[in-house]
């Protein structure tokens, strides 16, 4: 039984706004005595005296410290949100991105004044090409879904070049939700494909619907069940035989770095999420980056500008007649690229391999530890995440949502709930490689304690959470009429 809970113990301060705390005459600074005579400000020049709060230094420090504690992130605790790779990102990479030479570089400075930045982009493209097993990479797309759109436009341009436009894209039920959206944005009709009983695609099912009207297939691998698509090579052959292309959603690359090169499996185009796998914090609302890697036959269609190297000089090239054009102002989110570059160099090939192995080990440890507690619809070795559901708890009228809310009382950010859609009441956990065994064990203990409460004290779950500052919300009203005042 768990002895200690991380995080919440109820010591969470309410904090009024600074004007409510203000007291006439209180001041946070002490200035030396004036050596000139005081003269009042001329109201004709200054207008009304500004209404500034009057606070002591400690009032100010506590105010902002308390506000900062209402937030939750990887730096404060485990964040097992499946499909999101909420891992710890080394702070040194932020320091590198903030270096004056990078942060102050002007995008209009011209190639000859930007050799360092161009070289970094060139080398990062080469590193990502090596990690993924592709021929060329563009760093322009601003996020994963933007990468998908880029990939779809490339597939569209490829078919147009062949002089035979196609209308459909096959999208499995285990694809990420952004996949059908990206295909639709590109004018394709998405055709849904059911996975087999093992939670992965069956080649026969692909063969049945793949035809010459179909531009290709979009496969998330590892898929959103956290399972590796073991038949990927055969599926690529089937799609290629009918003239189609294979899009790989590589946002889950954190599970397979150094283990598998998707480009060597037959996939034609793939995106990565630098803000998941390569050291940019994910979910903070900051910029992301979704580089797209392609094989040789798709290289001419990559967006412009391309970074090229001639002898020892780097330059932007825009003269690419088959390119799909520009997808971002300037060259994408450069700061995110710096962090990815620094991360790859500090980790090295062995470090990236170890990262993926640990991420997979941690997820399998959770899967094995909790499979007697929660129902596990696909009981197979998983990759970086595992998907349970609430089938066992439904007997006590307890849902995934109730368990997720109760986890907040135990000091954990809940996992992803009700996604992927193929699993009813999904409870999807991605621990990532950066959590220690002790922290993972505490999470496992918390889930076990909650499952026990579901039997003995279900009220505790249906009324949860009780400890956080904000208790259970009306989900619809919270989304439609958000109250941002604390
Ligand atoms: C996160 C994710 C995406 C979308 O990436 P964004 O940067 O959020 O647009 C696409 N596919 C998978 C598998 C993902 O996990």
Protein model, in words:
The two termini are 35 Å apart. It is built from 16 helices and 12 strands. Helix 6 (115-132) runs parallel beside helix 12. The chain is globular, with a radius of gyration of 26 Å. Helix content is 36%, strand content 10%. It folds into 2 domains: 92-346, Type I PLP-dependent aspartate aminotransferase-like (Major domain) (Aspartate Aminotransferase, domain 2, 3-Layer(aba) Sandwich), CATH 3.40.640.10; 350-480, Aspartate Aminotransferase, domain 1 (Alpha-Beta Complex), CATH 3.90.1150. It is α/β, with parallel strands linked by helices and 486 residues long. The structure holds pyridoxal-5'-phosphate. The site of pyridoxal-5'-phosphate has 13 residues, from helix 7.
Layout of SSEs?
Layout: H1 18-21, H2 43-46, H3 57-69, H4 91-97, H5 100-103, H6 115-132, E1 136-138, H7 144-161, E2 168-172, H8 178-185, E3 189-193, H9 203-209, E4 214-220, H10 232-241, E5 245-249, E6 269-271, H11 274-277, E7 292-294, E8 306-310, E9 313-317, H12 334-370, E10 386-389, H13 400-409, E11 416-417, E12 426-429, H14 437-456, H15 458-462, H16 475-480
Parallel strand pairs: 2-3, 2-4, 4-5, 5-6
Antiparallel strand pairs: 1-7, 6-7, 8-9, 10-12, 11-12
Helix pairs in contact: 4-12, 6-12, 7-8, 12-14
The chain binds pyridoxal-5'-phosphate.
The site of pyridoxal-5'-phosphate has 13 residues, from α7.
């Amino acid at each position: 039984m768990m002895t200690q809970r991380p995080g919440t113990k109820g010591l969470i301060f309410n904090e009024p706004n600074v004007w409510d705390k203000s007291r006439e005459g209180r001041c946070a600074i002490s200035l030396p005595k004036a050596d000139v005579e005081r003269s009042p400000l001329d109201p004709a020049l200054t207008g009304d005296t500004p209404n500034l709060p009057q606070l002591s230094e400690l009032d100010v420090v506590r105010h902002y410290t308390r506000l900062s504690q209402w937030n939750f992130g990887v730096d404060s605790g485990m964040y097992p949100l499946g499909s999101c790779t909420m891992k710890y990102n080394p702070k040194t990479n932020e320091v590198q991105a903030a270096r004056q030479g990078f942060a102050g570089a002007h995008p209009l400075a011209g190639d000859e004044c930007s050799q360092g930045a161009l070289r970094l982009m060139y080398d990062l493209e080469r590193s990502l090409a090596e990690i993924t097993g592709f021929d060329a990479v563009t760093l322009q797309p601003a996020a994963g879904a933007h990468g998908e759109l880029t990939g779809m436009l490339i597939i569209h341009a490829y078919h147009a070049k062949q002089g035979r436009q196609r209308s459909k894209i096959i999208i499995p039920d285990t694809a990420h939700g952004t996949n059908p959206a990206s295909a639709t944005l590109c004018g394709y009709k998405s055709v849904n494909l059911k996975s087999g009983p093992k939670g992965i695609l069956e080649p026969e099912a692909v063969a049945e619907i793949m035809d010459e009207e179909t531009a290709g297939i979009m496969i998330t691998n590892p898929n959103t069940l956290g399972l590796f698509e073991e038949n990927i090579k055969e599926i690529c052959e089937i799609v290629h035989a009918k003239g189609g292309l294979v899009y790989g959603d590589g946002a889950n690359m954190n599970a397979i770095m150094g283990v598998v090169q998707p480009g060597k499996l037959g996939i034609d185009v793939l995106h990565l999420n630098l803000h998941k796998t390569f050291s940019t914090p994910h979910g903070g609302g900051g910029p992301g980056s979704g580089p797209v890697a392609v094989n040789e036959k798709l290289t001419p269609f990559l967006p412009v500008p391309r970074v090229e190297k001639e002898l020892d000089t780097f330059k932007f090239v825009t003269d690419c007649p088959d390119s799909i054009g520009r997808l971002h102002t300037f060259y994408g989110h450069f700061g995110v690229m710096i962090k990815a570059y620094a991360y790859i160099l500090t980790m090295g090939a062995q470090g990236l391999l170890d990262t993926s192995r640990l991420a997979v080990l941690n997820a399998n440890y959770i899967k094995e530890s909790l499979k007697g507690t929660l129902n596990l619809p696909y009981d197979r070795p998983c990759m970086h995440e595992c998907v349970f559901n609430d089938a066992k708890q439904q007997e006590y009228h307890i849902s995934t949502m109730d368990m997720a809310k109760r986890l907040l009382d135990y000091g954990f950010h809940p996992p992803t709930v009700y996604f992927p859609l193929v699993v009813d009441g999904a409870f999807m956990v991605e621990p990532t490689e950066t959590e220690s065994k002790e922290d993972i064990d505490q999470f496992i203990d918390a889930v076990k304690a909650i499952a026990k409460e579901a039997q003995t004290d279900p009220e505790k779950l249906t009324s949860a959470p009780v400890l956080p500052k904000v208790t259970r919300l009306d989900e619809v009203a919270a989304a439609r009429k958000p109250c941002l005042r604390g």
